[in-house]
Queue: 4 jobs
Job 1
Amino acid sequence: MSIQVKKNLVSEAKYALKCPNAMSAEYITIHNTANDASAANEISYMIGNTSSTSFHFAVDDKEVIQGLPLNRNAWHTGDGTNGTGNRKSIGVEICYSKSGGPKYEAAEALAISFVAQLLKERGWGIDRVKKHQDWNGKYCPHRILSEGRWEQVKAAIEKELNGGVSAKKASSSAQVYYVKKGDTLSGIAASHGVSVKTLQSFNHITDPNLIKVGQEIKLSGTASSKSHAPSSYPLPSGVIKVTSPLTKGTKVKQVQTALAALYFYPDKGAKNHGVDGVYGPKTANAVKRFQSVSGLTADGIYGPKTKAKMEQKL
Ligand SMILES: [Zn+2]
């Protein structure tokens, strides 16, 4: 059963604006539209406006609409004129993400099937599927990220790709749980009838306070003595919970990563958004901005109140 794609392609007169370069795609990039327009409206707006922003497909609860030919690039990933996202990836926008609800859920389900179909047609694996955030750090697809479901969405695509058989389930009987916003390892342990120590052992978790939204937690398996302490934190696909007191170095990185996850980038223009482990003026400023919108004294000092507020929002 294949998904039919409706075409409403941009006119060649607008190629220079919307899709100036020939493309041989290597990836598929998933977005959330961050509005509540239908796929038909998304595409007709995109091909009709004077902005260079562009993408190949919009998917809503009913249909998939294509706006650009697949042998042309689109400007959708913010990684620059020669960025791999912009020049080598097919952009898929999932509609109705602003408000969510049943229409969004149906759109996401159709997008999952559609992306699986694109992969299948090309003989590609799940490793070709990227989120917008992978290319330039933008918090997109925002709804999937904020609900901590990126790994689940990928697993669902992979399942469809493998003809409805989950690769994970086929290869292993291990049960897994995906960390949601607000979860703690002790909570996950309690609700699955295992000890925190057991989960730490199965999952090589050194610090039980450091779990990320979207992280896969094995609930069964073989305990291992191998453990590796995380030494640095790249910008996460989910969020790192900051639950230990701030000292320096790595701890500063945790705070900076948390700030970035909440959009209070320590240094938006810098590499890794300025996550460098140095609590300098830019980090203090980001903390200040966070404090001022959180009803706290905006002093730029990361103390217990700021820590508590940040944990609450993560
Ligand atoms: Zn996006």
Job 2
Amino acid sequence: MQEQMERRRFLGLSKYTDDGLCPPYSIGKYEFSEACTGCGDCISVCPEKILRISERSRLAVVDFGKGSCSFCGACVDACKEGALVKTGKAPWAMKAVISSNCLSYQKIACRACADFCEMRAIRFHPGLGGQQTPDLDSEVCTGCGACLVACPNGSIEMREVKLQEEVL
Ligand code: SF4
Ligand code: SF4
Ligand code: SF4
């Protein structure tokens, strides 16, 4: 199975396309693309309604446009293909990243992201010119997406971020 996946990956035959984020608890980007059949079982049980089938890849993907992830694990329990598995580690490597078009950098008062972050991963501190600017602690961020949903300016995206301790 592993050898087959490696070969498909080498030949560019993997179903994986960069079309949306793999769901939390995915067994790995490429491994997930091989295991997920697009049956939709995870989608129907997700209480937050943030999963959908990608039209391009026909795989389950996360859509933060509808809400954030509570990491309830219902999708894992529903997946019969073993594409989503709890390992005891963090559900995924996704972290929120604030872009330079954030309203606070334009001296517009906004703290919506911090207000919606249950982990309190976003703090504001005085920046150049005295305006308050956000500082996001990736060590604390779980990648739940609540800040992305709350941001009125589309200034937050989710990225796979390797923390220092994972790189070492
Ligand atoms: S962990 Fe829960 S909220 Fe998150 S995608 Fe799975 S079912 Fe939805
Ligand atoms: S993704 Fe979730 S935990 Fe991370 S900063 Fe945003 S709201 Fe906080
Ligand atoms: S909610 Fe968006 S625009 Fe507002 S401070 Fe946070 S990142 Fe900036």
Job 3
Amino acid sequence: MKKFAFLLIPFLLFPLHTNANETKVTKELKAAIIIDDFGGGTGGVRDFLEGQIPITAAVMPFTENSKAHAEWAHKNGFEVMVHLPMEPKRGKRSWLGPKPITVDLSKEEVRQRVEEAIKSVPYAVGLNNHMGSRAVEDEEIVRTIVEVAKEKNLFIIDSGTSPGTKFPEIAKELGVPLLKRDVFLDDISSSSYVRKQMIRLAKITEIKGRGIAIGHVGVTGKVCSVGIFQSTDEFKRRNIKIVPISELFAGELTQKHLVP
Ligand SMILES: [Zn+2]
């Protein structure tokens, strides 16, 4: 009897050595910051692409600078995504840029535009939507985009421009890795607002273990970059690592997704 009790002692003394606790101790907090609208806006292009924060560059296709910005980003070690313009419910047609995905297009036209868009942004490993509150609710359009993403081994980030988006359910159905944006950083153009939104990103990351923010390189690019750079100490203090977006997919990406 005594001998039996002795054998139990190590387990009573070290109850913390369970798998659950080990996971908790080693769990890394990771956040990704996608900067949209490269290829177009010039506001913060250099600040981000020559900066030290590993943002992910979402590049608009078919613009004068699509290729140059994608190559610049890649050369400096930044992850690149295609920022696919999609028709919104409100907004000017000119905000969409050339060859957007609109709901009047046939399935074949959508397919062709998505394939061309991917071609026009070298090094892209993923895709997110620019605007799109109308088109992301159209099941056939979204299905075509997700099918092409699957064929080209691109993951998808739902920018979250409509609560009625079909991206999550169709990506799940077709087995395409997808994550959703948590926070917009610069819907008000001031660096103090961006800092406030970065704190929101930090809090969400602390709760979920990972968080995704989207900012913009164009009109708000300067204040956005300043706000992000000013927040890096706070992220270090909270032990949150800012990483390229692909690092947030827990084991869902294979090698073929990560080779542009
Ligand atoms: Zn955009």
Job 4
Amino acid sequence: MDQPKIQIRNLKKAFGSKVVLSNINLDINAGESFVVIGGSGTGKSVLIKCILGLLTPDAGQILIDGEDVTHVPAKKRQDMMKRFGMLFQGGALFDSLTVWRNIAFGLMNAQGVKADIARQIALEKLREVDLPETVANIYPAELSGGMQKRVALARAIAGKPEMIFFDEPTTGLDPIVSSTINQLIVRNVRHLGATALTITHDINSLRHIADRVGLLFKGEFIWVGSVAEMDQTDNPYVKQFIQGLPEGPFTSLQ
Ligand SMILES: Nc1ncnc2c1ncn2[C@@H]1O[C@H](COP(=O)(O)OP(=O)(O)O)[C@@H](O)[C@H]1O
Ligand SMILES: [Mg+2]
């Protein structure tokens, strides 16, 4: 078996007395698309932030290509960030920057790419997410929600990341726009050959994107398997989640 791209071992994270991640164990293989599902407030975004180094875990380890990166110094962290692409929950574009400057932000600020070259790359990325070059010089507020998501995707892929994280990429979009975003995600992740971790509530999105799925509940992955296994499992938590049922183990435990 090849070395997993990302390994998470006994990861713990609490805020004060509130334990969010109690014991996370997960291996994600190189080139794999892993999808995390789970109720609101179960720590899905916190998990991504721990992997990215935006939050420091209380215990446990995160290994990338077998190397422990849980507590790397700031300079090395900066180098590592170049290997990551991220689409934040809500898209989180900079209102005061034009579309091309949003896409080029990481290239110019973290990687020191000069403006004229960064602009060329941004225009190329606009094409890769099927947006016309004419949007390059306008501001995010002038775009529809679906177009903003495309720009956020273009920004996430701009640095040709090895690993890419999508936090609820289709939340708030209508089903047709969501399908388009899902297709663009799959196409661009494949094109990069990247390893992807996506958080979603959207089962349709999951079916488009996932190789494997993990269900996060009370700080742990209580079920991990392929999409085919997900459809066949008797696990009542998974069944309630994928069928969107109002009654089930989640409801009775709340
Ligand atoms: N920086 C923070 N400080 C304190 N509490 C936080 C912080 N970030 C997240 N939390 C709490 O951790 C829990 C999980 O949050 P989050 O990972 O955002 O959930 P979700 O699964 O919906 O993405 C929530 O109760 C949230 O309030
Ligand atoms: Mg979240």
